[in-house]
Amino acid sequence: MINCRMMVPGSENRRRIWIYLCSPVERMNPFDTVDHADHSGFGNTGPLRERRAYDPIVQAMSGLMAVTGFAGQPPVRTGAAIADTATPMIAVIGILSALMRRQSTGRGDWVDVSMLDALSFLMPEVIEYYQGGAIDPPLANRHPGGAPFNCFHATDGYVYVATVTDIDWNNLLRAMDREDLIDDPRYAHLPDRHDHVDEVEAVVENWIKGRPRDGVVDVLQSHQVACGPVLSMDEALASEQLRARDMLIPLETPEGKAVPGIMGLGIPIRFADDPVQFDVPAPQLGQHNHDVYGALLGVDDAEIARLKDAGVI
Q1: C-beta separation of 199 from 148 below 8 A
Q2: Is residue 183 within 8 Å of 131, Cβ to Cβ?
Q3: What pLDDT score does 23 carry?
Q4: SS3 letters for 190-233?
């Protein structure tokens, strides 16, 4: 069995409910057959353990917002809720590790994952800071590992172009019919291109700005240059690639009826032998109360009804 909870340590009212409902399981076997997983903003230890947190709060306090956006502009958060997404993924890794440990030792464990820890773990800037003692200002759409490595404006949209190696750069020059720059010592190697990044990007920008987005992508792809169109959400969801990978699937109601005109996201994992798919629709609110509180935790029907009447469940 795995018990998972997401709450602020010290949220005593909710914690009392948790202890009341789960203490029968914990009394039976605190760790012998049960794995526990806590997912919170700042974890179960440390001076911030009782603080409330939301994704943007953790982005701000992790330093992520300080390296996101444009230099000289106010900090911005990422468009995606990266802390809300990455933290449960890391929690799953911890839970699976605890399950493996339980298989080999017979003992469960307590997995404690915080949103702040998760974002700190994902930031290479932490290592860069301790290597060099400083962090570069926000690079916007640029990247320290390549040049040119940026988003460029076409006639009807934007194209992201990424070159890392000297071969990438030479391929890009050939795609733009600028072979005259291949032997230019100012741009010969990546450190040189970083030193002259504004000039390098101007060459690319001048070539792209008079061309349609998809035409630019076709030419660059034909020359083995890593690039991609900046898609609207409508365009992204119409992607043949997503559909080919079953990443867009029809939704069903809890009664098993199709929801017309609405698609859901599939599972981004593929196995060679066994298909991975959702085999049951999303449950209704409270649909599994009796299964969890009754069968698993031993709460009788009368007590479940009392908890429901009191608004606890």
Answers
A1: no
A2: no
A3: 47
A4: HHHHHHCHHHHHHHHHHHHCCCCHHHHHHHHHHCCCEEEECCCH
3-class secondary structure, 47? coil
Of 88-102, 127-141, 185-199, 210-224, the least confident: 127-141
12 phi and psi, to 5 degrees?
-65, -40
List the domains of the chain with CATH numbers.
2-132 (3.40.50.10540), 149-230 (3.30.1540.10), 283-313 (no CATH)
From residue 256, alpha-carbon distances to 175, 247, 252, 284 in Å are 52, 20, 5, 11
What is the C-alpha separation between 51 and 75, in angstroms, rounded?
22
d(CA 12, CA 20): 12
How many residues appear in the chain? 313
- DSSP type of residue 139: B
CA within 13 Å, CB half, 229: 19
pLDDT digits (tens, 9 = 90+) for 267-312: 898 888 888 877 777 788 888 888 888 888 888 999 999 988 998 8
Query: Token pair of 70, please?
Result: 């444009």
- The pLDDT of residue 17 is above 70: no
Dihedral of CA 255/261/264/270: which sign? positive
| C-alpha–C-alpha distance, residues 151 and 131, integer Å | 29
Q: Catalytic site residues?
A: 143
Distance from C-alpha of 149 to C-alpha of 145, rounded to nearest angstrom: 8
Residue that is written with structure tokens 């190697």 in the block: 189
Q: Contact, 6 vs 39, CB < 8 A?
A: yes
Position with higher pLDDT, 242 vs 22: 242
Distance, in Å, from the CA atom of 215 to the CA atom of 154, rounded to the nearest integer, reads 9
Could you give the 3-state DSSP secondary structure of residue 87?
helix
pTM: 0.80
